[in-house]
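Protein details
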Amino acid sequence: MDAALDLRAAALTAFNSFGLPAHAARLVRLRSLAQLRALMAEDGWARTPRLVIGGGSNLVLRGDVPGTVIKVELAGRRLLGSTADAWLVEAGAGESWHDFVRWTLEQGWPGLENLSLIPGTVGAAPIQNIGAYGLELAERFAALDAVDLATGGVREFGPADCGFGYRDSVFKREAGRWLVTAVRFRLPRPWQAVTRYADVAQALAGAGIETPSALDISDAVIAIRRGKLPDPAQLGNAGSFFKNPVVDRERCAALLAAHPTMPHYPQADGREKLAAGWLIEQAGWKGRALGPVGCYARQALVLVNLGGACGADVERIAQAIAADVEQRFAVQLEPEPVFV
């Protein structure tokens, strides 16, 4: 294995978007399936603790990581084919998600524009079932290939195999078992704009765009995200830190009686999704810090590394925010990032 791709006692600060200090006992930058097969053939592989990461944008490192950290850098993107009702596009798991989205749009294959500027890699996207501005990845997902890190077996997962839920999938629930190598997307045609999200509709209207193209929507989403969310290169963060909680209709009604302006969104199963950012702001955390980690002044849903933070600092403020929200609203917040 190329020594440049296989490092011992390697720093992980640059490989997590929070910029948290940590070291891996061993870091492997994975760029081919042959490299993975060689790694799995090593003596002691079955007993070696391992962590698979992509862009590190959904990760909170509590400290040094034992065993092997595999950073997936598998590249490649291509059009597999098209029919009258869809384009089928594939990307390697290590491709930048945002770069892949913009590439599809530039090729004339729309459908992912609402998911523009989400940090991370293509391989991590189905694990988290990323979503934003009226669209979830599951709505465009066709299939993916993954390697079972216990057996070495390769499996194709279709939509029904992935167990997609809100920011959830079978891969997240079985963390450490599967390494995603490539993901395929079905981009429907004829294309239909998804502009039902209020911020997107307002941005397009403000620009005087009545009939937006996919690139128009992508540009609007990029502008919205840049206005609300800090650049991890400038201010370490993991994007939206808490999931939007889902409550039953009766609980939502009780909350609305006490807080008539509370945002809420009906779900297909009859429950209601609440806005975690609104709950956090009402609890008094927006713009407030606890040690070296703060709640971002422009978006209460984002925690930021103000300088010199470690994983314990992130965990401490996350627990404090969740406790205050639960005390005030009797609603539990669940973090989106994975704590390691």
